[in-house]
């Protein structure tokens, strides 16, 4: 082996044996060079190799931190036949999943929400006071579509970091990602039209499709790299598809990440069939490897991609600030927003613009990425060691949710009901498909801090799942 490969192998052994634990900081490049008596370039290349393997992560101006040996993935890819377009009917229990997220003292594993203390609340309050002090009449004005220019400029700069160039004039400020998705669907589809979606799919998107009276065709997605392109082309050829809707970067619930090659092929496919392609890019900034992956928009040359995102998962769910890059549907989106919500709130956009322009966002993002990666690893280890034999789970490279496949005898709806009785909230798998599948799957939110009550709650969930496996009830 070359010197850097030998050093990487040595450090990997230390990580896999637990000598260096997840969350611990490695020696700096200079310190490691002195300790191991190798050149600085050797250490840098060894660290890059470990980062590529998902064993360590870089935090800006702080160093390299251990993620730990990753748990094996292996959830079953759904075997879906392309059936006729179907109407969406989301179970009523979706409401109780969101309601339980408000319960104080509960173990919140259901709704995909970070703990409130993980958001930069003090910083945002400081920026809010500054904006109000400098512009005291701001709360007395409308910020009509497409929204505050500086907020759109800062959002455009964030996209540019990933190699996606969208002018501020091509962005529309929205009330979170869900309004962006709703506008994207309304600008490309009419009631009764058919949308092509991946399976499993986030139940909030299924709800939006149901409310807009849209039908769906589901295509299976792999837990590692997302939707199967051959099935997508089969659906486009076979059915009258009005739009596609996918989550290419750390999909919800599986955390799948499409390669750049696959993204480019997907965009080319929809361009060839002249069908608009909507992407939900809300988790893209939460990459465990530090660099934000490219959105589908980066490969769009025809204006057929509509990219939706927000800062609800990284900065503040309360500010309700998102954005939409609607491509050739820009004017239609602005007209739709003007007639429905009159645009996004003025104060929220100004506050977010100021925060994004500061250096605080990048520092906060580094801390948040490390927290999410460590939490996913902790959850994974406990699940594999205590849940029923045969339990399988995904190995996401970003975001903060886990998709867990339980033994077939475990009914996730019954598990959900029993867990609720003990103050534990989860999301049963049946919520993530228009076909009512995934009966033995659950999605778990890893966004809270690791505490003794959380660990006990997760262990208790394992006991409930084990009891269901034994009885089959």
UniProtKB/TrEMBL annotation:
GO MF entries: transaminase activity
Cross-referenced InterPro entries: Aminotransferase_I/II_large, HTH_trans_reg/aminotransferase, PyrdxlP-dep_Trfase, PyrdxlP-dep_Trfase_major, PyrdxlP-dep_Trfase_small, Tscrpt_reg_HTH_GntR, WH-like_DNA-bd_sf, WH_DNA-bd_sf
Keywords: Aminotransferase, DNA-binding, Pyridoxal phosphate, Transcription, Transcription regulation, Transferase
Transcription listed as a keyword: yes
Membrane spanning residue stretches: none
Keyword ATP-binding: no
Record domain HTH gntR-type: where: 1-69
SMART domains the record matches: HTH_GNTR
Recorded family membership: In the C-terminal section; belongs to the class-I pyridoxal-phosphate-dependent aminotransferase family.
Protein's UniProt name: PLP-dependent aminotransferase family protein
């Amino acid at each position: 082996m070359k010197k850097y490969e030998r050093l990487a192998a040595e450090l990997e052994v230390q990580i896999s044996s637990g000598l260096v634990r997840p969350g611990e900081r490695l020696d700096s490049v200079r310190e490691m060079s002195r300790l191991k008596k190798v050149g600085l370039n050797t250490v840098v290349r060894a660290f890059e190799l470990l980062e590529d393997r998902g064993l360590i992560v870089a935090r800006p101006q702080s160093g390299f931190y251990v993620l730990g040996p990753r748990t094996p993935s292996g959830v079953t890819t759904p075997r879906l036949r392309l059936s006729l377009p179907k109407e969406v009917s989301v179970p009523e229990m979706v409401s109780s999943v969101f309601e339980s997220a408000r319960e104080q003292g509960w173990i919140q594993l259901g709704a995909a929400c970070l703990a409130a203390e993980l958001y930069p609340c003090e910083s945002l309050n400081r920026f809010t006071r500054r904006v109000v002090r400098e512009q005291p009449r701001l709360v007395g004005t409308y910020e009509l579509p497409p929204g505050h220019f500086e907020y759109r400029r800062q959002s455009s700069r964030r996209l540019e970091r990933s190699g996606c160039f969208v002018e501020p004039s091509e962005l529309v400020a929205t009330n979170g990602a869900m309004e962006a998705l709703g506008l994207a669907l309304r600008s490309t589809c009419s009631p009764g039209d058919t949308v092509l979606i991946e399976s499993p799919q986030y139940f909030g998107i299924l709800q939006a499709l149901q409310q807009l009276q849209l039908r769906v065709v589901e295509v299976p997605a792999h837990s590692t790299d997302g939707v199967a392109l051959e099935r997508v082309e089969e659906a486009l050829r076979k059915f009258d598809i009005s739009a596609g809707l996918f989550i290419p970067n750390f999909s919800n619930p599986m955390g799948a990440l499409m390669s750049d090659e696959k993204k480019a092929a997907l965009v080319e496919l929809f361009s060839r069939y002249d069908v608009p392609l909507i992407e939900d890019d809300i988790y893209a900034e939460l990459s465990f490897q530090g660099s934000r992956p490219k959105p589908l928009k980066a490969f769009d040359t025809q204006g057929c991609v509509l990219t939706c995102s927000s800062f609800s998962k990284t900065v503040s769910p309360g500010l309700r600030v998102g954005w939409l890059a609607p491509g050739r549907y820009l004017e239609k989106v602005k007209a739709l927003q003007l007639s429905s919500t009159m645009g996004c709130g003025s104060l929220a956009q100004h506050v977010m613009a100021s925060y994004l322009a500061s250096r605080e966002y990048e520092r906060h993002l580094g801390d948040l990425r490390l927290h999410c990666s460590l939490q996913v690893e902790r959850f994974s280890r406990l699940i594999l060691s205590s849940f029923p034999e045969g339990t399988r789970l995904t190995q996401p490279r970003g975001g903060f949710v886990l998709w867990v496949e339980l033994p077939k005898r475990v009914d996730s709806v019954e598990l959900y009901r029993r867990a609720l009785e003990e103050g534990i909230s989860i999301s049963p798998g049946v919520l993530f498909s228009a076909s009512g599948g995934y009966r033995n799957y659950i999605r778990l939110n890893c966004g809270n801090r690791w505490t003794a009550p959380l660990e006990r709650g997760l262990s208790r969930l394992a006991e409930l799942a084990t009891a269901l496996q034994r009885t089959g009830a």
